[in-house]
User: Which sequence fits this backbone?
């Protein structure tokens, strides 16, 4: 995989850099600072990018790491959406957000690459019971939906 510690994980490094840029962006806007809900949501999303990579790394299983990397990627997209909302709300201008978007894109690419590189290390799950195949000639079993006056 190419790393032994969390700090060596390039996706983690990029996510931290993105988070720091979000903090800088928020500090540069008095209007964003005064909107507690907006500020809180953007910070939480940026923090979640980093913390989910860290949590997944600490699980020591490729499948669980991938699970948390996917959550991290979702949080990254949420943070990018909050940046757009900040532009729409007049808290930031688009030019001041360029670096944050670039860092977010970089973190997203590295996270996706890491997910792909971990997939060969995921153990296939064992089925606990064999699922019965449905017979297309038989109707499904179970209660019928309740009828209404209109049906």
Assistant:
């Amino acid at each position: 995989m190419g790393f032994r510690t969390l700090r060596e994980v390039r996706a983690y490094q990029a996510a931290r850099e993105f988070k720091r840029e979000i903090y800088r962006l928020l500090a540069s806007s008095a209007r964003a600072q005064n909107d507690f809900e907006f500020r809180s949501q953007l910070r939480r999303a940026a923090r979640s990018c980093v913390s989910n990579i860290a949590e997944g790394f600490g699980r020591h299983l490729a499948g669980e790491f991938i699970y948390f990397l996917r959550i991290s990627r979702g949080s990254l997209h949420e943070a990018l959406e909050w940046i757009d909302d900040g532009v729409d709300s007049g808290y930031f201008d688009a030019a001041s957000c360029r670096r944050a978007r670039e860092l977010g894109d970089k973190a997203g690419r590295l996270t996706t690459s890491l997910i792909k590189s971990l997939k060969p290390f995921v153990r296939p799950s064992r089925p606990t019971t064999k699922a019965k195949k449905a017979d297309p000639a038989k109707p499904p079993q179970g209660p019928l939906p309740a009828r209404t006056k209109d049906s």
